[in-house]
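In this section we walk through a basic example: taking a raw amino acid sequence and producing a predicted 3D structure, encoded as discrete structure tokens. The instruction is simple. Fold the sequence below.
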Amino acid sequence: MRAGGGAPLPRQGERGQGREGESDRSDAPRAWIDGGARGNPGEAGFGVVFEIPGPGGVSETVEICGYLGRATNNIAEYAALLAALAFAARRGFEVLTLHSDSELLVRQLAGSYKVKAPHLRRLHQRALRLRGAIPRLVVRHVRREDNHHADRLANRAMDERLPPPAWLVSELDDARLG
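The resulting token sequence is shown next.
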């Protein structure tokens, strides 16, 4: 599938946008991220789901979500990305496969789309800094229907106005200003 000129997006099961030499190992942690806004801008939130394998399969599922106040959908998507990368860096993950239904975010991380909006540039730069802490990161685009758990968390954060975890607040400062 092509959109707006760049490279085709990977299909389900194909290798995603990442750095050369990265793997998409089944024994590596995986994360699904989603951000949403009710109105654009509007009430916004994000959701992140980690599956962290242990002996014999998935041993830990971690859910992270937060209410952002009034923000755009793109800011909420970046907030989800920052939450996932910050969590992975805190846990010392060297390998991570990250799934997002935001084509814009995936392509901006891959460098095939420019980050034109000034308010997104700050978030993109933070994401690149955090990404550097994860040597083997694969970022995949997934269909929206394949991202339902993270979407539910983002909606829950908006519905219940759940604050982001305290350890994440400094990374999200720019997302709250959007």
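Looking at the output, two observations stand out. The two ends are 31 Å apart (CA to CA). The longest helix spans residues 73-91. In the next section we compare this with other chains.
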